[in-house]
Write a structure and sequence with these properties.
Length: 194
């Protein structure tokens, strides 16, 4: 008589499936690993979004019009006109770079937040320079920030007395941004009208 057949050998997987405690432990470990991965990846995304150089949501078309600010030909020196971006080495070393030109560079790369920061610091140092105001006004107009634009336009009105090319530029941008605002119609700030 032949011996009875031996029971088939049970695999590790079969033993796991038969033991509900072991199966629950494995599920709990898998959940913990998934949660840790979620937290680590979330932190990385958060750190990337809090970069020192905040990116702008404004398109990189800047304020350069037809040139688009994308490429600048620095090799062509045959032109007899002097560019506003031409600096002597002594100016660059001394930190005497024009803040409006520096802001233009940041704006060309879509970094309007850095440009605005540079211009605000320049206004603190030189509050009477209307070119700084105008460049900031361009940023506010691009963002369609009516309140910031109107506040700064009022300052330019005080500086220019409501006359000249700078004020005309402010009025032109203001009419496009906020057509119903009397500041850009009559040329006088709201607080100055009775």
């Amino acid at each position: 008589m032949a011996p009875p057949p031996a029971p088939p050998e049970r695999s590790f997987l079969d033993e796991l499936l038969d033991n509900p405690l072991m199966l629950g432990g494995i599920a709990l470990i898998a959940l913990l690993i998934g949660f840790l991965l979620y937290r680590v990846l979330g932190r990385r995304r958060e750190e990337m979004s809090e970069s020192v150089f905040l990116e702008s949501r404004i398109p990189k078309d800047s304020f350069f019009g037809a040139s688009g600010g994308e490429s600048v030909d620095t090799k062509n020196r045959g032109d007899s006109t002097v560019s506003s971006l031409s600096y002597s080495p002594s100016q660059l070393d001394a930190g005497d770079v024009d803040p409006v030109a520096e802001a233009d560079v940041y704006l060309a790369y879509g970094r309007d937040l850095q440009a605005e920061e540079i211009l605000r610091e320049a206004l603190r140092v030189n509050p009477d320079r209307t070119a700084i105001h105008l460049k900031l006004l361009e940023i506010h107009a691009k963002r369609r920030d009516l309140r910031a634009y109107e506040g700064l336009a009022t300052e330019v009105h005080k500086l220019t007395g409501g006359n000249g090319a700078d004020w005309t530029r402010v009025v032109d941008m203001g009419k496009e941004l906020d057509p119903g605002n009397p500041l850009y119609e009559s040329g006088t700030p709201r607080s100055a009208t009775p």
